[in-house]
Amino acid sequence: MPLPEREYKESTNDFMVRCMGNNTMNEEYKDAKQRYAVCLRASGADTFERVAKAHAYDTYGFVEELTEHNFYAPASDEYEDCEDEDEEEIDIAEAKPGLWENIRKKKEREGKDYKPAGPGDKDRPDPEAWKKAQNSEYQGRKVTLNKPFRTPGGPKKFAVYVKNGSGNVIIVRFGDPNMTIKKDNPERRKSFRARHRCDTAKDKTTPRYWSYKMW
């Protein structure tokens, strides 16, 4: 299978976002960590950068372009409260008409069996979660930016839709699904945020920002 090629002057980060969201890559490498490793090798990054990014994946998470393969419309009760964020409701059909047209065609092809991820993919919602999303007020067209939601089946505990510097909507996936945060304990939260210098995480397009935000 031909891998995505790094475009001229494209940064490693931008390549990784594009590669991780690539539909063909998602179909071929259903495990997100394996897909990340393959994309990282294809990025042409040097050894030091590959090690650093692999560590960042394990510690924080990763980012993907929004595609028909990974799009998921959370139900209202799947969103998490997140203080001091400018939330924005966005209609995906208007923001990315090409994406929504692909989703619409896929729904037509698959009918009641339609799911936003391929069979066997860990990102594929369980039937109950999908039913909740499809029965939401906007039937999966509208989502809220800058408001994290839980991701059924992983690969990370949370995801959030944000706009990047180009104004495109991307998915930031973050959080260890096997760990419990202690956000309701003010002292522990304060200590954690001080130790990890959470106040230095300013970029909303990174898993690090949202990992610290939710702590």
Account of the 3D structure:
This protein has 215 residues and is α+β, with helices and mostly antiparallel strands. It has one domain. The chain has a 4-stranded antiparallel beta sheet with strand order 1-6-5-4. The chain starts with 11 loop residues before the first helix and ends with a helix. About 3% of the residues have low confidence.
Q: What order do the strands of the largest sheet run in, or round the barrel if closed? A: 1-6-5-4
Kindly name the structural category: alpha+beta
Number of domains: 1
Helix fraction, binned, reads 25-40%
Distance from N terminus to C terminus (CA atoms, Å) equals: 40 Å
SSE topology string: HHHHEEHHHEEEEHH
* Count of discrete alpha- or pi-helical segments spanning 4 or more residues: 9
Radius of gyration: 17 Å
Instruction: Summarize the biggest pleated sheet.
Output: 4 strands, antiparallel
In short:
By secondary structure, this protein is of the alpha+beta class. It has helices spanning 12-21, 23-28, 32-42, 47-59, 92-95, 97-110, 127-134, 186-195, 207-213; strands spanning 61-65, 88-91, 142-145, 149-150, 158-163, 169-174.
Short key terms for the protein model shown above:
alpha+beta, four-stranded antiparallel beta sheet, 215 residues
Question: What's the topology here?
Answer:
Layout: H1 12-21, H2 23-28, H3 32-42, H4 47-59, E1 61-65, E2 88-91, H5 92-95, H6 97-110, H7 127-134, E3 142-145, E4 149-150, E5 158-163, E6 169-174, H8 186-195, H9 207-213
Antiparallel strand pairs: 1-6, 2-3, 4-5, 5-6
Helix pairs in contact: 1-3, 3-4
